[in-house]
Amino acid sequence: MRAISPVRIPALVTAVTAAALLVPALGASHAYALDQVRAEQANLAGLGYLAQSGVDGADGPATHTALKGFQRDNGLDEDGTYGERSELALHRQVKAVQAKAGVAADGSFGPGTKAAVQHWQSAHGLSADGVAGAATMSSMGMARTVRIAAQKQFSAHGWSIAAQFDCLNSLWVGESNWKVYATNPSSGAYGIPQALPGTKMSTAGSDWKTNPATQIKWGLKYIDDRYGTPCNAYSTWKSRSPHWY
Q1: Domain parsing of the chain, residue ranges
Q2: Domain 36-46+55-139 falls in which CATH fold?
Q3: Region label for 125, one of left (φ > 0), alpha (ψ between -120 and 50) or beta (otherwise)
Q4: What is the pLDDT along the chain (245 residues), one digit of tens a residue?
Q5: What does the angle CA 166 – CA 197 – CA 161 come to, to the nearest 5 degrees?
Q6: What is the DSSP track for 43-72?
């Protein structure tokens, strides 16, 4: 029996068919990217970093500027890029607002969260715009920035913010510039307080690698136990070369 020759498909037909098969996949990917950007923008707008009109799915300059503001406040590199670290921090803060407002904490600032924030604002004499900005978060007793998070813990150590915070700020600017993921390339010291090794901070919480509040809690206790006050710690830090405390 004579063998049947394989059917040859013209190269042009094959290329066109392949391109046609790619179109749905590319479209789905584009739709996902738009949804992801909108979700990021909705959270930034819900926390007062971006105007509501900026929730448009376009990853442009306004979104980058808003994200940089959030990153600066939360101890992240201010690159305007929405990576895993920014996503984690943004979701964490939205969840904290949701918990205070009494709505399901899913990390997405949607209509239900906005309504709950509006209810909180009305009950506390604030403008009920549904945006958890600085005034609203303050009324909720929440720390909007890493520096405020530190100040809120001062009373537990018996320190005056007026007398001691400038020293703490100078100390941690010098150590890490208040960056959560700061890592000393030579010693391996880690986090906002530059714990050495970083695992020491696990005594303050299992999320010590990523949560500024946990790092600050450990750092303030370390200062209290070893130096008594931030100003004593900063004075010692300045007296040493290279600086350490």
Answers
A1: 36-46+55-139, 146-239
A2: Muramoyl-pentapeptide Carboxypeptidase; domain 1 (1.10.101)
A3: left
A4: 344 444 443 443 344 344 444 444 445 555 657 789 999 999 999 999 999 999 999 999 999 999 999 999 999 999 999 999 999 999 999 999 999 999 999 999 999 999 999 999 999 999 999 999 999 999 999 999 999 999 999 999 999 999 999 999 999 999 999 999 999 999 999 999 999 999 999 999 999 999 999 999 999 999 999 999 999 999 999 999 999 99
A5: 15
A6: HHHHTTSS-GGG-SS---HHHHHHHHHHHH
Residues 6+ apart with CB under 8 A from 104: 98, 112
d(CA 78, CA 239): 31
> Across the strands, what pairs with 183?
190
201 in Cβ contact with 177 (< 8 Å) = no
**CA 221 to each of CA 123, 183, 216: distance values in angstroms, whole numbers, following the listed order:** 36, 20, 8
